[in-house]
């Protein structure tokens, strides 16, 4: 992964980065992250689609984490009072860093992110060896909806 970095203001630069956009007062305006969302490990990690594909490949083939090391990430934990929810408000199963709700009966691990002018999702269907990554630099898009439309083309109904 050569185009991924943890951005620290006044310490490094993000070459060829995208800026977010929001539609306000009848027009599109370029936006950057707020200082509270651009923290390391959250909105402060910048990557490219190519690098995210490499990262996904490393997870799938256990070259980044062994199968045993990955197991806690894909094992649902009991969260008190259903406080972990999907973006639509539905209670969600959660592992270490992944939502684990199935989709149309298909096992799925997924996550999303959003900050000022940006929306993202990664949807991994490990039984089908399909990962869908959607990166948007505008605030009026729901990338999970786009990703699941793509998933529908490949996974079909559960048997």
What does this structure look like?
- It contains 3 helices and 7 strands; from the N terminus they run ββββααβββα.
- The chain is of the alpha+beta class and 159 residues long.
- It has a single domain (5-155), classed as 3-Layer(aba) Sandwich (Beta-lactamase), CATH 3.40.710.
- The strands form 3 sheets. A 3-stranded antiparallel beta sheet has the order 5-6-7, sandwiched between helices.
- The longest helix has 13 residues, at 143-155.
Query: Which strand order does the major sheet show?
Result: 5-6-7
Overall mean pLDDT score? 86
SSE arrangement, N to C: EEEEHHEEEH
Structural class: alpha+beta
State the end-to-end CA separation: 37 Å
Note the main attributes of this structure.
globular, Beta-lactamase, alpha+beta, 159 residues, three-stranded antiparallel β-sheet, two-stranded antiparallel sheet, 7 strands
Helix and strand layout, with pairings?
Blueprint: E1 5-6, E2 20-24, E3 27-31, E4 45-46, H1 49-60, H2 67-70, E5 109-115, E6 118-125, E7 130-136, H3 143-155
Antiparallel strand pairs: 1-4, 2-3, 5-6, 6-7
């Amino acid at each position: 992964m050569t185009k991924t970095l943890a951005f620290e203001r006044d310490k490094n630069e993000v070459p060829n980065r995208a800026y977010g956009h929001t539609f306000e007062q009848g027009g599109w305006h370029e936006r950057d992250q707020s200082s509270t969302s651009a923290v390391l490990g959250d909105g402060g990690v910048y990557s490219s689609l190519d690098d995210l594909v490499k990262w996904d490949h490393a997870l799938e083939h256990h070259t980044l984490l062994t199968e045993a090391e990955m197991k806690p990430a894909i094992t649902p934990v009991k969260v008190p009072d259903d406080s972990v929810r999907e973006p639509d408000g539905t209670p969600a199963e959660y592992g270490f860093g992944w939502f684990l709700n199935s989709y149309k009966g298909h096992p799925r691990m997924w996550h999303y992110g959003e900050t000022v002018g940006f929306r993202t999702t990664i949807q991994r269907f490990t039984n089908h060896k399909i990962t869908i990554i959607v990166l948007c630099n505008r605030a009026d898009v729901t990338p999970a909806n786009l990703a699941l439309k793509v998933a529908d083309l490949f996974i079909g109904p559960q048997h």
